[in-house]
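Translate structure to sequence.
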């Protein structure tokens, strides 16, 4: 379809998701259907469709379910139930165990087994090696999930937080699922003017019954990629043209490896205590490593603090909690002295940050935002177990960094975790 010129009667306003509408300059018209060579290339490129992959050589490659790719295009059922053959790496990954695969961004994989939840068995088309990869590090080849600018289920406030990070120029953008309209998307763009300074504009991307997309009905596109390419060349009624996709941080892993997904009691010898970060009534907090290659936080409990049975009961519940505002429990050593292995937060104490550090310069809106995220984490905890869980992680926007805070909650002075608050 491309960008098409519609009837003069059609509406010319661009719809902002919540902030009203912005009107195009009167009399503006788009030209004929654009072709790809008319657009600038700043990383928005089409990924080749490898879903018609056929193995080379005499023997076909059999994926799980018994599909032989030498005689069939091969489909496999992923978490969403959609038949997809090949995936592409969105980030670099360094293997943590002998069962994992190391890979580079852009590497292609044939998924052999997706039944392990967050870890998929895959074969690299680059090296031919087979192993497990984290599922949130890859996306289907030639899909919008594989695009640099697609952020999926990202909330409006989180989008503004990321776009307003230090170093992003005017025109930094991302596309996310709409929070208000099912099946639609939102285009969020960093803008600047004399009155508001740096701020973010949001535009609704609607879907046509025929399958196309549009912001204004006068400019319609077959794909989101075409829409992005078009508005990267001209503002065409937007606040500014699209300049560069917003930077994506590394995705969070909920387990140390596929082996610790269900069996998370690990040998004490696999942990190395490197630097003590703090100590208190119930134990110490250390920065350390697991298997010599993965940085973690290790909380050691003083003998007699609680029985191993009570600790394991508490840890069972904590391990099940998976929320982006909750710090993730990775593994435990249940024999005394008890070790608790969690995500590592490397920016120090939240309390010190707010009282004596750079956080003293934060304005009221930032502080209110931090409090709101703490409340979000508290709701998640109450939903699971009436406030008995201790690990809370919250997002803290500050300068050029996206920080995270972890808060441990004391309950009747009988706690499994050392009270601390730290930033990532």
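Result:
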């Amino acid at each position: 379809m491309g960008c098409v010129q519609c009837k003069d009667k059609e509406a010319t306003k661009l719809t902002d998701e919540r902030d009203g509408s912005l009107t195009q300059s009167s009399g503006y018209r788009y030209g004929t259907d654009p072709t790809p060579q008319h657009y600038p290339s700043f990383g928005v490129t089409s990924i080749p469709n490898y879903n018609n992959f056929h193995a080379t050589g005499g023997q076909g490659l059999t994926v799980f379910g018994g599909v032989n790719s030498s005689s069939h295009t091969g489909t496999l059922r992923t978490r969403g139930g959609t038949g997809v053959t090949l995936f592409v790496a969105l980030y670099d990954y360094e293997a943590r165990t002998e069962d994992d695969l190391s890979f580079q961004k852009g590497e292609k994989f044939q998924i052999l087994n997706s039944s392990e939840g967050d870890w998929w068995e895959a074969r690299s088309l680059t090296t031919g090696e087979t192993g497990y990869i984290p599922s949130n590090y890859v996306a289907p080849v030639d899909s919008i999930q594989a695009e640099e600018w697609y952020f999926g289920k990202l909330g409006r406030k989180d989008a503004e937080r990321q776009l307003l990070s230090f170093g992003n120029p005017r025109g930094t953008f991302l596309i996310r699922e709409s929070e208000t309209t099912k099946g639609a998307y939102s285009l969020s763009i960093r803008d600047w003017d004399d009155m508001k300074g740096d701020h973010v504009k949001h535009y609704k991307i609607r879907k046509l019954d025929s399958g196309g997309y549009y912001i204004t009905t006068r400019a319609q596109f077959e794909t989101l990629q075409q829409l992005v390419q078009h508005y990267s060349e001209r503002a065409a009624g937007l606040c500014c043209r699209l300049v560069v996709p917003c930077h994506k941080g590394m995705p969070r892993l909920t387990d140390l490896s596929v082996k610790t997904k269900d069996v998370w009691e690990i040998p004490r010898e696999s942990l190395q205590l490197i630097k003590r970060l703090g100590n208190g009534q119930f134990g110490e907090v250390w920065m350390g490593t697991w298997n010599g290659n993965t940085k973690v936080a290790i909380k050691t409990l003083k003998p007699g603090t609680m029985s191993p049975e009570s600790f394991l009961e508490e840890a069972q519940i904590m391990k099940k909690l998976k929320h982006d505002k909750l710090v993730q429990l990775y593994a435990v050593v249940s024999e005394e002295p008890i070790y608790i292995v969690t995500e590592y937060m490397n920016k120090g104490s939240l309390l010190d940050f707010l009282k004596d550090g750079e956080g003293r310069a934060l304005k009221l809106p930032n502080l209110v935002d931090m409090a709101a995220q703490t409340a979000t984490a508290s709701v998640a905890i109450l939903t699971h177990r009436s406030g008995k869980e201790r690990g809370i992680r919250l997002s803290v926007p500050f300068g050029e960094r996206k920080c995270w805070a972890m808060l441990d909650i004391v309950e009747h002075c009988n706690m499994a975790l050392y009270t601390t608050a730290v930033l990532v």
